[in-house]
């Protein structure tokens, strides 16, 4: 077995060059998110009650101003982006400069039974809480059609 071949992050069933060929073939189709461990994604919980959907998303490290929420055509999108730069100086000269960037975006399909103008959002201690009220859905009426 060759030891100079770099192993990819793609899940592997076989440990040989033939398998490496297929890993390279499928990588563009699957994209980077497939390879991202689930532990790196913020936790999201959605609960349904009789009148609402309640969504909570953990977004640690983001401030309220970093978070954007939108609802359009039955889709709820949560996005957050944060940029930070710190500089430590010693006697007036920069000794250390660090930059940090983080972003997150996720879309959920709820459909047309949401009262989008009544959605309530609150962000506290790194947790986003959304209450999405359901609209009253009426059962379609069965209409009998007379056959002539």
Protein model, in words:
This protein is mainly beta. 13% of the residues lie in helices and 43% in strands. It has a domain of 93 residues: Immunoglobulin-like. The protein has a four-stranded antiparallel beta sheet with strand order 1-2-7-6, with no helix packed on it. The protein has a three-stranded antiparallel beta sheet with strand order 3-4-5, with no helix packed on it. The longest helix has 19 residues.
Q: How would you briefly describe this protein structure?
A:
This protein has 148 residues and is mostly beta strands. It has one helix and seven strands, in the order αβββββββ.
Q: Termini distance?
A: 79 Å
Rg from alpha-carbon coordinates = 24 Å
CATH topology descriptor of the domain at 41-133 = Immunoglobulin-like
Shape verdict: rod-shaped
How many helices? The count is 1
CATH architecture of the domain at 41-133: Sandwich
List the helices and strands and how they pair.
Elements: H1 17-35, E1 44-48, E2 52-58, E3 67-72, E4 75-90, E5 93-109, E6 120-124, E7 127-133
Antiparallel strand pairs: 1-2, 2-7, 3-4, 4-5, 6-7
What are its keywords?
four-stranded antiparallel sheet; Immunoglobulin-like; mainly beta; three-stranded antiparallel sheet; disordered N terminus; 148 residues; 43% strand; rod-shaped; 1 helix
């Amino acid at each position: 077995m060759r030891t100079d071949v770099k192993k990819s992050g793609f899940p592997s069933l076989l440990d040989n060059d033939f398998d490496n060929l297929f890993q390279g073939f499928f990588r563009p189709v699957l994209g980077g998110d497939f390879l991202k461990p689930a532990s790196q994604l913020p936790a999201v919980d959605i609960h349904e009650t009789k009148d609402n959907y309640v969504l909570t998303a953990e977004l640690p490290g983001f401030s309220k101003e970093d978070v954007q929420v939108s609802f359009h055509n039955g889709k709820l999108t949560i996005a957050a982006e944060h940029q930070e730069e710190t500089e430590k100086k010693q006697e007036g000269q920069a000794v250390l400069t660090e930059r940090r960037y983080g972003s997150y975006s996720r879309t959920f399909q709820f459909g047309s039974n949401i009262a989008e103008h009544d959605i309530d959002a609150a962000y506290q201690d790194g947790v986003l809480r959304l209450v999405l009220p359901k609209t009253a859905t009426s059962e379609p009426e069965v209409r009998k059609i007379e056959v002539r």
